[in-house]
Design a protein that fits this description.
With 282 residues, the chain is α/β, with parallel strands linked by helices. It folds into two domains: 29-115, Leucine Dehydrogenase, chain A, domain 1 (Rossmann fold), CATH 3.40.50.10860; 140-265, Rossmann fold (3-Layer(aba) Sandwich), CATH 3.40.50. Helix content is 40%, strand content 16%. The chain contains ten helices and eleven strands. A hairpin with a 4-residue loop joins β9 (232-234) and β10 (239-241). α6 (140-151) packs across α7 (171-180). It is globular and about 50 Å long.
Length: 282
């Protein structure tokens, strides 16, 4: 039976370390503050926002919610973002994306200050990930995958890793972070021929394609570590599923993340870690 790489203990351990740093900051008169910039009432945004607020409260981080109507015009939105950029009390900004079609998301990404970009969406943050330098922060999901490996003492050094997916949210950033940890990484994507032949050779497989239950037994061999980053609602099975078909993968894997309860449950703790790091840097 595979070891279940549950996210809850990882998030708890991270939160405890954050609380200790927050206490040190507060003794020096600094209160870490996360600003959440949300447009409209998307259910997934609201759900993540609630989780982030709950995690922040448990760590002693303050939250400021800036909620704009779904039909907000571009100038008003960018003005709200710039106000948060300039506010010295704000250490981190979480800007929910995708933005409504009337808003210039590319301009907003470029405007967001990298030192406050705690969700890793700016070009500056991504450059920092690729260069392994402390500019901005990595995307929370990518770092959550790395924190999970670290907590369970799964060292990527010298390991062959196959990453399925090349998005800037998870695939490419986590590949770079794994390379900085001295893994040998192959990124597979929609134009990669015969992906299963590559993933079967890997020691660690990270599934981040966004294709629900697309990674089955034919992608895997015995003894691998399988990290499932995906999550979606399967209408037929009436349950949340990841990119990996858990029923097929679990008997083969040495260790595997559940969905839900795996990587996703670590992301809000990572967000709070990065807000605290931003306050410490400042």
């Amino acid at each position: 039976m595979a070891l279940l790489l549950k996210g809850a203990p990882v998030a708890t351990a991270l939160t405890e370390s954050i609380k200790a740093d927050v206490e040190k900051l507060k003794k020096n008169g600094v209160v870490p503050l996360l600003a959440i910039l949300r447009v409209g009432e998307r259910n997934d945004d609201i759900s993540y926002e609630r989780g982030a607020m709950k995690r922040a409260a448990s760590a002693g981080i303050e939250v400021r919610n800036v909620i704009l109507p779904a039909d907000v015009d571009n100038d008003t939105f960018l003005a709200a973002l710039e106000e948060l950029n300039k506010d010295p009390l704000v250490h981190g900004i979480l800007m929910f994306r995708p933005l409504p079609v009337q808003l210039d998301e590319e301009k907003a990404r470029k405007m967001l200050a990298p030192e406050k970009d705690v969700d890793g969406c700016t070009d500056g943050s991504l450059a920092g990930v690729f260069a392994n330098s402390p500019v901005g922060f990595p995307p929370c999901t990518a770092r959550a995958a790395m924190e999970l490996l670290k907590y369970y003492d799964i060292d990527p050094k010298g390991k062959r890793v196959a990453v399925i997916g090349r998005s800037l949210v998870i695939g490419r950033p986590v590949a770079m972070m794994l390379m900085h940890a001295n893994a040998t990484v192959t990124i597979c994507h929609t134009r990669t021929p015969d992906v299963p032949s590559i993933t079967r050779e890997a020691d660690i497989v990270i599934a981040a394609s966004g294709q629900m239950e697309s990674v089955g037994a034919d992608y895997l061999r015995e003894g691998q570590v399988v990290i499932d980053v995906g999550i979606g609602w399967n209408e037929q099975k009436q349950k949340l599923c990841g990119d990996v078909c858990f029923e097929e993968a679990e008997p083969l894997a040495a260790a595997i993340t559940p969905v839900p309860g795996g990587v996703g449950s670590v992301t809000t703790a990572v967000l709070c870690r990065q807000v605290t790091d931003a306050a410490m840097r400042k």
